[in-house]
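Exercise 7. Given the encoded structure of a 122-residue chain, write a plausible sequence.
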């Protein structure tokens, strides 16, 4: 179980890619691959695309969902059932949390882009 000081805000920014492997999602979300596979069975919202050889490819919204599940279970102390209910309920607080994560992510990406542009103009 991750350290209680590891919050979603301590996780790395999500790269601007379309698809992520289970290994990449594991690193981006600080969750072991076997846990991700288990969560797919427990949370209907988590549905990675499966391709050749049953390989999983997660999309950006899946990575955000994994981070929300992680936060509900590890930081907020929900059980699997409680976390599932929170996610399926789509409460205003949950929407706000997701919006906050998306805005934070976009801000980090824009800051990186600005940094690159400034570096190129010098």
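Solution.
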């Amino acid at each position: 179980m991750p350290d209680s000081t590891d919050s979603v805000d301590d996780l790395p920014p999500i790269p601007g890619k379309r698809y992520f492997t289970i290994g990449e999602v594991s690193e981006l979300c600080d969750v072991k691959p076997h846990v991700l596979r288990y969560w797919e069975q427990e949370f209907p919202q988590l549905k990675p695309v499966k391709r050749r050889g049953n390989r999983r490819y997660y999309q950006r919204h899946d990575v955000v969902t994994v981070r929300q599940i992680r936060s509900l279970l590890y930081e907020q102390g929900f059980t699997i059932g409680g976390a599932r209910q929170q996610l399926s309920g789509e409460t205003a607080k949950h929407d706000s949390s997701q919006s906050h994560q998306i805005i934070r992510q976009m801000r980090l990406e824009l800051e990186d882009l600005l940094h690159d542009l400034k570096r190129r103009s010098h």
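Remark. The radius of gyration is 16 Å. Students should compare their own answers with the one above.
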